[in-house]
Design brief:
about 65% helix, 434 Repressor (Amino-terminal Domain), globular, mainly alpha
Length: about 100
């Protein structure tokens, strides 16, 4: 079971690679632009601290895309994509399709 997403680590890796800092507030705003600020921050904190009851794969993909990390890094696991799909309960081919839609040609 996935306990938490490695968002802080991903933000640090993003900063190390790009030289740009993305705050928790900025990331939350990009993920949920239509939500109130306090709601966005609570949601992101829940993902980061393992308080979320369920990790939404679409949100995880957005976080990985915004911070330019892969899902394995974000979930803190060392698995193949097939093992990851089993671990998070998403069909392997659906997961591949979701990732492909986020990938720029």
């Amino acid at each position: 079971m996935i306990k938490r997403l490695r968002i802080s680590e991903a933000r640090r890796a993003y900063q190390d690679r790009t030289g740009k800092r993305m705050t928790q507030r900025e990331l939350a705003k990009r993920l949920w632009p239509d939500e109130k600020q306090s709601t966005r921050e609570v949601k992101l904190s829940a993902y980061e601290n393992g308080k979320a009851k369920r990790v939404d794969i679409e949100t995880a993909l957005k976080i990985a895309d915004l911070l330019d990390v892969d899902l394995n890094f974000l979930f803190g696991i060392d698995l193949s994509l097939e093992q990851l799909s089993d671990k998070i309960g998403v069909n392997y081919f659906e997961l591949c399709d979701m990732i492909a839609k986020k990938t720029k040609p």
